[in-house]
Amino acid sequence: DGREELVLTCQGCDDGATVRFESRSATFRGHRAALRLARELGVGDNKIPIVLERRPGKLDTIELVVPVEFRVRGDTTDLAKNPPAIKIIAQAVKGSAVVIDGKAAPLGADGTATLSVDVSRALTGPDAVQRTLEHRVPYAVTPPGGSPKQGDVTVRIGITPLVLQAPGESIVIDTPTFVLAGRTAKNGVVTVEGRPITVD
User: Fold this and answer.
1) For the purposes of burial, counting CB atoms within 10 Å of the CB of 169, is it exposed (0-12), middle (13-18) or buried (19 or more)?
2) CA distance linking residue 94 with residue 130, whole number of Å
C-alpha cells in the first residue's frame, strides 16, 4: 500500500514483546513483528537503532543495518506537458547497471536514472467517459557484484474526459470571436492556448 515496514524475527521474543524505532512500535506474535516505518529508507545501507523490550522494563538497543539496493517508481508530473509523458525513475547504489523498458539507463552522479515514456496516443481523442491510463514498464537492476533484479513498474491514473462540441474539426470564421463548447469532468479545469475556460 505504499508504506514501508520492517519484518523482524526474534526467536528469543515471546508474544507481547515490543520493538520501537523512532515514533513507531510493533508487538511480536509468534516471534515475528511487522514494524511500520515513519519514513522511507534511503538507497544504500541504513543504520536503524531499534529498542527491543522482551519483558516489561527490560530494554535493549540493537543497531540493524538494512541495505536497500535500489528503488524504481513511476512519476506522472510530466502528464501536463506537451507531449504528455510518464517518467520511470530508478535510484540505485553506485556502480549498478540499470535497464528500463529494454534501454540502458546510466546512473547520474546522484545515483538516479530516468526514462521518459510518451503516452500521447493513450491520452488523445474525444471521449465522454473517464478512462484509465495503465502503463507497465519492465526494469532490471544489477547491483555491483550481484545478480540482476527484475520487475515491473505499473503507472495507473484516470484520464479526464473531454469532448468538444463546437466549433467543428475544421471551420473558417470571419469574426474576431467564436464559440467553444464541450463537456468534461465536473470541476475539471480546461485551458486553450494557456487561457482558462470556465467550466460550469
Assistant:
1) exposed
2) 42
| Nearest of 60, 188, 56 to residue 130 by alpha carbon | 188
C-alpha cell recorded at residue 20: 520501537
Task: Return d(Cα 5, Cα 35) in angstroms, integer.
Answer: 5
- Cell numbers 536503524 correspond to 48
pLDDT in tens, the chain (200 residues): 678 899 999 998 999 999 999 999 999 999 999 999 988 899 999 999 999 998 888 899 999 999 999 999 999 999 888 889 999 999 999 999 999 999 999 999 999 999 999 998 888 888 888 888 888 999 999 999 889 999 999 998 888 888 888 887 778 888 888 888 888 888 888 888 888 888 88
> Residue 50's CB: how many other CB atoms inside 10 A?
19
Q: Within 13 Å of residue 32, how many CA atoms lie on the same side as its CB? A: 4
Alpha-carbon distance of 106 to 104, in angstroms, equals 6
Phi, psi for residue 83 in degrees, rounded to 5: -80, 155
DSSP string of 148-195? Answer: -EEEEEEEEEEEPPEEEEES-SS----SS----EEEE-TT--EEETTE
- Rounded to 10 degrees, the C-alpha dihedral 167/168/172/177 comes to 0
Which three cell numbers mark 86? 510518464
Residue 155, beta-bridge partner list:
135
